[in-house]
Amino acid sequence: MAIIGADARMHAMVSDPNLPLVRRLEAVGFRAWPASSVVFDGSWQVRLTGGHPGKRLNCVVPLDPSDSRDIALRIEKAGKRFEAHGRPLLVRQTPLSPRPLIDFLASDGWECFEEVVTMTADLGRMTFPDTLDHLPTQDVGRYVDADIAVHGSDPGLKAALAEILGNIKPASGLFVIEDAVKGALAAALCVQDNDLAGIMSLAVRPDHRRQGLGIEILSSALRWARMRGARTAWLQVVADNTEAMTLYTKMGFEEAYRYAYWRKASA
């Protein structure tokens, strides 16, 4: 069994006392960060995006703990689909994943990596710090340039990121903090889906961290969502990103559930 880069308890993470919340957050997450191609194999969602390599956009996501038939055959079928798209096959494990599937992956030479924490916060109880309030920009190109700059992403992904943003159906707020000389310092994407507001992306330029810009832009995004009627905020953060976890906890976020990815281990 290969469980690498994630706590061993992820192997047993196939049930959760609040599965209705997990199902709802998974559903709004799919709408807030849409893949260009989505097909279903039973209750397994197969997500592929040719123009963008993001893991959330290119993975198999099981959505029913009881759907564990023909695992080997379905994994093989998914693998061929991913290969045709030039993508490595990834399986995203959430509390909705069937235990027999996780057992199969662990025994078949797969490895578990990148544990991610999904967090929620009650916007009605949230008190925002006294920081500058920023309004969302309507200029998608400006936001895309800022997002790529602060993340240090490949500029070649600009068109793909713009396409993803254009495919988001719920209301989305694009937030940017800029300096007239230095350019983009921080960027955040908030997607409001009825009473839920998801922070889908938030980053501060490395040389401007620990200066309050993270709280400033997050507060602006959450204020915007609350004014539009959102009551609960949610986000996802890699478990070992202690700086971000500290920021979100300080803002009132609490852990709801965790997920991780599985990939075939290298020979």
UniProtKB/TrEMBL annotation:
One Pfam family cited in the UniProt record for this chain: Rv0428c_C
SUPFAM superfamilies hit by this protein: Acyl-CoA N-acyltransferases (Nat) (SSF55729)
Keyword annotations from UniProtKB, A to Z: Acyltransferase, Transferase
Top-level taxon of the source organism: Bacteria
GO molecular function: acyltransferase activity, transferring groups other than amino-acyl groups
Gene3D superfamilies reported in the protein's UniProt record: 3.40.630.30
Transmembrane segments: none
Domain N-acetyltransferase span(s) in chain numbering: 130-267
Name of the featured protein: Acetyltransferase
Species per Swiss-Prot/TrEMBL record: Agrobacterium albertimagni AOL15
Lineage: Bacteria, Pseudomonadati, Pseudomonadota, Alphaproteobacteria, Hyphomicrobiales
